[in-house]
Design a protein that fits this description.
single chain; alpha+beta; five-stranded antiparallel beta sheet; 24% strand
């Protein structure tokens, strides 16, 4: 059995708990393990909060789509904002005989290492920490960003709707 739903939401803070509650209710009814429900609901809340904050003109909506298929849940949040900005790589310095070796690159921080005071990027860190696979991309042919993430589901003992593939 598969379950899917899609919401078109206003870019308002009140839309975030609405999407979260719908996801939680669907997963709890299907019999998904409570810890998995919690992880996915937090990841969805972060993605929705990003869409509300960065998703374009205040008159624009954003979309949340969730699929439960077999033992996997995939969630996608799409907005109409400027999308993700790709930073070009810095130009390579010219090579001279006096060049010193470059210092090692700064490490990529894990969610646990992100500074507590950081305002930007913590939501994406949380999504990555709480899910199994995350994709970020810009919409094709029009402005906007798409954040999608997957998580392998675990089922409660005696789940009402076991989703065996």
């Amino acid at each position: 059995m598969s379950i899917w739903w899609s919401l078109h939401l206003r870019r308002e803070a009140a839309s975030v708990p609405l999407a979260r509650r719908l996801l939680l209710g669907t997963m709890e009814t299907a019999g998904v393990d409570p810890d998995i429900c919690y992880d996915l609901s937090v990841a969805l809340s972060e993605a929705c909060a990003n869409a509300v904050e960065h998703g374009g003109d205040t008159t624009e909506d954003y979309r949340v789509t969730a699929f439960i298929d077999g033992d996997t849940c995939r969630i996608e949040v799409t907005d109409s904002g400027p999308g993700f900005h790709h930073r070009p790589a810095p130009p390579a310095p010219p090579h001279t005989a006096t060049d010193r070796p470059l210092p090692p690159a700064a490490p990529v921080l894990t969610p646990a290492q992100a500074p507590e005071f950081a305002e930007d990027g913590r939501g994406l860190f949380l999504i990555e920490a709480l899910t199994d696979h995350v994709r970020y991309r810009n919409r094709t042919g029009r402005p906007g960003a798409v954040v999608s993430f997957d998580k392998i589901l675990k089922w409660r003992e005696g789940a009402a709707l076991p989703m065996a593939s």
